[in-house]
Amino acid sequence: MKYMILTYASQQDYDNMAGTATATPDWSAEDFAAMGAFMESFNKDLAESGELVETRGLTAPVHTRRIQLQQGVPVVTDGPYAETSEVLAGYWIVECDSFDRATEIAARLASCPAPLGVAQAAVADVRPIAESRAELDL
Amino acid sequence: MSITEIEDLLRGLAPQVLGAIVRRYGHFDTAEDATQEALIAAALQWPQDGIPDNPRAWLITVASRRLIDLLRREQARQRREETVAQWTLPDQRLAPAADRLVAEADDTLILLFMCCHPSLSPASQIALTLRAVGGLTTAEVARAFLVPEETMTRRISRAKQRIKESGIPFRMPPDGERAHRLGAVLHVLYLIFTEGYASTAGPSLYRTELAAEAIRLARMVHRLLPEDGEVTGLLALMLLTDARRPARAGPQGELIPLAEQDRSLWNAASIAEGVALITDALPKGATGPYQLQAAIAALHDEAPSAETTDWPQIVTLYALLLRIADNPVVALNHAVAVAMARGAQAGLALLDTLQADDRLADDHRLPAVRAHLLEMTGDRAGARDAYQAAARCATNLAQQRYLHARAARLIDDP
What we know:
The structure holds two protein chains of two kinds.
Chain A: E1 2-9, H1 11-17, H2 29-48, E2 52-57, E3 65-70, E4 73-78, E5 87-95, H3 99-108, H4 118-121, E6 124-128, H5 133-136
Antiparallel strand pairs in A: 1-5, 1-6, 2-5, 3-4
Chain B: H1 3-25, H2 28-49, H3 55-78, H4 81-87, H5 90-93, H6 104-115, H7 122-133, H8 138-144, H9 149-166, H10 175-197, H11 208-224, H12 229-242, H13 245-248, H14 268-281, H15 289-302, H16 311-324, H17 328-342, H18 344-354, H19 365-377, H20 380-393, H21 397-412
């Protein structure tokens, strides 16, 4: 069974990680490297256990383009998100034996090193993926 | 012989065996499966039984038998005489013996020309080259390009299907086409290298195994075509660029610009090899873009510091390069060299002419270069704004952190 693990961040969170002058909390070079190292070993473990299907991080919300019908015509607008609204920041698709196992994997993300306050505010969701029509028909 | 040595031997032989099999029997797709199985058999048997006297002939024999098995199975399943006719066309019967010795070099080259055929998209050319010539598994190629294995499997089989449909013959392109087709091969190797050297997304700056694979393949082509100046130039360029890798990022993975790198960390052996290659190639006939870029890289690598670099010479080389290829990134590098040789103002004037180029519109490099040059002129406020503008355009977090740090330095000590 496949599950998707989703994490969220706001433009402000991205700016903090990118080291902008007004960053609060401030991610030091050590913080940033520690997070990178954690993610690398987290992904490596998942790849080695054979549970990782794929994972991706998304670039900052400010690079978003939104397509929406306006008077019947699709119109493209730039980044529609407020500075502090949390949007999808990254995801993992894992294939594992149970919902509980997928939850256990997601829970490991809570130990990702981050400056004080960031970890407390962070959330991860786990959602089962609807399998293909062909598999449902079996 | 150790397991690693056997693996290296097998990877070198893989394209030769596949080439020999495709030359003899056609059926690129099935030939690849047969070759893979022969390689697996060798990897299992050789460490125990020892290396056969002629490893290449051994592999070709095993792969041929396997291919015939696979084709027979297919034939039995389809039970159609057309199939038989298809794989024993008269001209295929006239193909030279698969294990004749003189063909090794040609087969690897022909295979490269086939994988980099202009009817394939660049992404497919790269995937097929890594798989068929580089001997990487589909899973490895998929991981290197951060796509799911299923996607890569589909991309590779579509590419093979394309080759089949287009009826590209397995032979050297005619003389008139050869230079153009070699250009495509070199471009593919260059793309593999740059993908490994500066990954475009994610927290990690490079995927070293791709850069190493590109260098290995470039070495192979150089061995096959030692007199081609652009092949030599490309190999030299890769070695001279890769030599700086140990100094390119700090302990926390942050980017360090060329001028501030600890040059004692550069790989002296790679630099010596690259310099020797390009020094040998330059005086021999037509000078192409890879040789020019290698010559520029050599000037950087040989200088003890940024200040003592031969900037006027670099300006000349970039001007030559601009004349061959109208490329905004080359123009940007030219502007930096001009600033170093004749002062920041001269460089900034050139940047103004680039501002209108649409190809650089969303690129962080133009404002980043402007920021560096403004900092050189002492315009701290202007430099700070430009660094921040560059950070807004950049998508790589490591690059963003570098640009913000440069901007912050200009606030802290006014």
